Amino acid sequence: MKFNSTRYLPLVVTVGQVVIFPYYIIWLKQVSLTFTLFAWFFAAFSFAAAWGYRIYQTKKNKERSLLFMIFVGMGVVYIVIGFIKNSYEYLPYVVLPLQVILGVLQGYFRAWHSEQDTYHLHAVHHYMIVGFMMIGFSFVKIISPVVFITIFGALLCICGVWEFFRIGKLSVPKKV
Amino acid sequence: MDSITKLVKNPWFLGCLVIIFMAVVMWNIPIEKRKYGLSQGSLVTDYTGLLPEHIERVVTAENRNDLQRIVKQANENGQKISIAGLQHSQGGHTYYKNGVVLDMRTFNRILDIDEQEKTIRVEAGATWEDVQEAIQPHGLALKVTQSQSIFTIGGSLSVNAHGRDIRFGSMAETVKEITLLTPEGEIKKVNRDDSDEWMKYVFGGYGLFGVILDVRLELTDNDLYTIHTEKLKTNEYASYFNRVLKQPDTAMHYARVSVAPSSFLDEMVVINYDHTENTDHKSVLKKEEGVRISKMALDAGRKGGTLENLFWAAQKRYIASLNRKEITRNNAMRSESTFMEYTKPGRVEVLQEFFVPVDSYDEYLTDLKDIIPANDKRHDFKVHNITVRYAAKDNFTTLNYAKEDMLGLVVLIQHGLKEEDITNAESLIQSWTNLTLEHGGTYYLPYYRYQTKEQFKSSYPNWQDFQEEKLRKDPNHVFQNMFYEYYVK
C-alpha cells in the first residue's frame, strides 16, 4: 500500500492537471473576456511556473519537499476558483494572483516529480490515461467547468492529506 | 560577470520578474472589455447589447459615390438601410432586421476650418474628439456638444443631442449647412433656409431621412473658465438655476442629484463654468484620468446601501475639490467615460433621460420619491446616477424634447436580463414617464424603448408630422431601424 501511494500519487496529480486543463481553459476564457487578457494570464502562469521550478531546483534539503502543502495549495486554488462567481466585478484582479500561485506550485511540483525514478514511467502512463479519460469525458455533458475544477481541487486536497500522513514513514526512491 | 550569473540563478530573480510582470498586467487590465455592435458575431446590437438582430451585411463607408449607389440600388430592389456610427444609441436606431448597415466610422475627415468665420466642415463619421483635436490649435471650441467626446457628429445630430452649454441653444442650431444623401439617392447641400425643411427632420430624425455626409458647424473661442461648485438642497435648485441663467458669466452648467439612500433626491451638487475673459491657445486636450480609481468607486456605489452613501460622499468631495480650478472650454466638453463601463453577465446598464420644465423640477423630484425606492440595494432595478443638464427651448426640430426650457435628468439604471426583471424595469420606467408627462415633460428617444407607443405619442405630439414627412421624403422606406418600427411605422 505504501508502495502504491508513493508510486501513484504524483501520477494522479499529473493526470488530473492535464485532464482539468480544458475545463480550466474554458473558465479562464470566460473570465478574461478578451484574448489579450487571457494571454497575459497565461504568461503570468508560465513565468510563475518557471519560478516555482527554480525554487525546487535550488532547494538544499530536497528530502523535506513539503509536497503535501503543494498539493493542498493547488487544491485550494482550484476550490477557490470553483466558488468565485463569474459576475464578480474585480474578477481579473483576483484571477491574476491565482494564476501566479498555481504557476509557482505546479512548477515546483514538476521539478520535484522530474527528479523521481517514476517520472519517465509516469510520463508515458499519464499520456495514455489522459487520452482515455478525455474520450470518456467527451460523452459527459459539461454543466459548468467550475464543477470539475472544484472536484479536482478537492481531490488534490485529499492527495495533500494523504501525503501529509505518509511523510516520515516512507521516502520516495531517488534517482541514482 | 559572475555576480550577474549568480543573481540570475537566484530563484528570487525569477520571483521578482513574476511580481513585476504581475504588477504590469494588473495595471493594464483593460476597463473596456466588452465588444458590442457591429463587431459582434452573427447578430448586431448597439451599446447595451439589447435587441440583437440579424442583418444582411455591413458596408464600410468609403466614398460618397459608393454610398449613393447603395441607396439608389436599395430604392430599386427594396433593401432596407440603417446608418451606424459608434452605436452609443440604445434602442436599435442603427440597424434593422435583414437590412444593410452603413458603417460611417471611416467617413471621418476634417474637410475645412475657417478661422475667420469660426466654422469647421467635417465628415459625419468623425467623432467630437476628432473635431476638438482639429480646432484646438486654432484656439477654437465647439458651441454645443455632448458631455463626452466619444460620439460621432452624425450620431449626435441624428439624436439632436445636448450638453453642458447653456448659452447657444440646441445642437441643431449650431449647424450652418449639411451635405445630405437623401433617401432617393440625391446628394444635396442643405441649410436652415431650405424650402424642403430637411434639417427639421434630419436633426433628431434618428437616421430615417438620409445619410448626413458632412456638416459645417459654428465654433466659438476656446475660452478659459473657472469652475464653481456648490452643494444645494433639491428644493433650492430651480431658483438657483434661474439665477444662473440670468448671469451671463456662466457659460456651462450641470448638476448631480444624490441617489444615495441617506440623501436620496434631497441633495445636489452643481458645477458652473464661469468666464475668466481669457482664451486659451496653449493648453493641450486632456486625456482620460483616474479611470481605474473612478471605476472602482463607481463599482462600489453600484452595490447600493452604505457603499452608495460612501460613493456620494466621495463624489461631493471630488466635485468640491474642483472649485476655483481653471479649465478650457474644449476640456470642459470632454469628460471621462471609460470608467462607466459595466460588464456583468445577466445584467445591463442603460440610460434614460427625462425632461421637465425648469419650474416643475422641485415638485417632480418630490413625486419621484414615490416611484423609485431610496435604497435599492435589494432591488433588481437600481438607479446609480442622475445628472441634470439644461435643454433650451427648441422650435426647430420635429421630434423636439424641449418644447420650453427644460431640465434634462440623465439617469443611469441597472437591471437584470431575466424576463421578469425587464418587465419590472419597463413598469417602473413607464411609471416614471407618466410622472414626467404629468409635469409637462418628455423623455428622450435615443435609449431603449421601455415606454409605450401611447407615451411616445403624448411626449411627441408632432409624431404624425414626422411620420407623414417620412413617407413623403422616403416613399420606398429605404431608411429603416428598430426604433422606427417600434414607435412610428
Describe this structure as you would to a colleague.
- The complex is a heterodimer of chains A (176) and B (489).
- Chain A is mostly helical and 176 residues long.
- In chain A, 77% of the residues lie in helices and 0% in strands.
- Chain A has one domain (8-58, 83-166).
- Chain A has helices spanning 2-32, 35-57, 67-83, 91-114, 119-137, 145-166.
- The radius of gyration of chain A is 16 Å and the shape is globular.
- Chain B is α+β, with helices and mostly antiparallel strands and 489 residues long.
- Chain B has three domains: 1-30; 105-221, Uridine Diphospho-n-acetylenolpyruvylglucosamine Reductase, domain 3, CATH 3.30.465; 224-451, Vanillyl-alcohol Oxidase, Chain A, domain 3, CATH 3.40.462.
- In chain B, strands 15-12-14-13-17-18-16-19 form an eight-stranded antiparallel beta sheet, sandwiched between helices. In chain B, strands 6, 7, 8, 9, 10 and 11 form a six-stranded antiparallel beta sheet that branches.
- At the A-B interface, α2 and α4 of A face α2 and α8 of B.
- The 3D shape of chain B can be described as globular
Shape of chain A: globular
| Low-pLDDT ranges of chain B | none
| Helix coverage percent of chain B | 25-40%
Number of domains of chain B: 3
Q: How much helix, percentage-wise, in residues of chain A?
A: over 70%
With strands numbered from the N-terminus, the spatial order across the biggest sheet of chain B is 15-12-14-13-17-18-16-19
Number of strands of chain A: 0
Show the largest interface: A-B, 27 and 24 residues
Number of strands of chain B: 19
Which class best fits the helix and strand makeup of chain B?
Answer: alpha+beta
- Can you name the CATH architecture of the largest domain in chain B? 3-Layer(aba) Sandwich
Radius of gyration of chain B: 24 Å
Strand-residue fraction of chain A?
A: under 5%
Q: Quick one: CATH class of the largest domain in chain B? A: Alpha Beta
- N-to-C SSE string of chain A, H for helix and E for strand: HHHHHH
Please report which band the strand proportion of chain B falls in: under 5%, 5-15%, 15-25%, 25-35%, 35-45% or over 45%.
15-25%
